[in-house]
Amino acid sequence: MATFRLHLPTPFSPKPPPNPSPLSTPEILPSPTDAGFHFREKLLYLQRDLHLDASRALAANPALPLSPLPSLRAASDALLSHGFIPEEAARILSHHPSLLTSDPEDPLLASLRFLLGPVAIPCSQLRRAVLRCPRLLVTSVPNQLQPALYFLRRFGFVGSHRITSQTALLLVSSVERTLIPKLEFIQSLGFSFKETQKMVLRSPSLLTFSIENNFKPKVDFLVGELGRDLKELKEFPQYFAFSLEGRIKPRQQMLKESGLWMPLTDMLKLSDGAFRERLVDLRIESLDKRL
């Protein structure tokens, strides 16, 4: 009778085989509930859809990693629903990444409604107003925008001088810390309230300039170097809008070297080419008088 034999591999060990090497473990893909997966999703949204520098956005807004993706999209969706194109929404959110984790109802939507309602910015001009000053969307309506609007209207920004998309940026300025001190400085130069009012309504950008870095050095140069009367500012308050180093000083130097004089308006408003042509004309006129 034949004998059945069991042939076992040689060598045979009764011990179980060792655990497989970690390298041989199949790759486990992140599940939709994995925190890392959701974080990468948010990074992709910031970088690919909004074209933001994710590192800077995270540094500026530490709440980003904890906010769900739908919450991050809410701010962009709110802007798009008001006529902003994706590139404009991305630009606004890059300036103020805090909007990504804020309730879109306040301050973003509240500010947009305020601009369209009480301020009466036309819908067609809303984008221009916000893109000119994105800070409008992160500023409290009751604590800042409303008081500033009330003050500016009392001052004279009504009718043909009403707040527009060009001047809406004034609404983010504190009445007590910014607007009143600048108006007081202008009056301190010897102008009456009515004269100050006329100057500011003619050139609203005066309320955006720094007293220390703009007003004072330019007043000193106007009086000390140019030898001008401060009364010239009544007719040309735009003087403060020109660069002291880039335009005012160089043109004054050219006039001084030529022994010539120009009204402030001609001296500063003319283009470089037109200014040189005007210098030539003045030189010829000067020679003609001598001959």
TrEMBL record:
Keyword Transcription: yes
Keywords, comma-separated and alphabetical: Transcription, Transcription regulation, Transcription termination, Transit peptide
Region listing for Disordered, in residue ranges: 1-30
Keyword Ribosomal protein: no
Biased composition (Pro residues): 11-23
Stored SMART domains: Mterf
Stored Pfam families: mTERF
Protein name: Uncharacterized protein
A molecular function GO annotation: nucleic acid binding
Similarity comment: family membership: Belongs to the mTERF family.
Coiled-coil ranges per UniProt: none
Biological processes per GO annotation: DNA-templated transcription termination
Domain of life: Eukaryota
Gene3D superfamilies: Transcription termination factor 3, mitochondrial
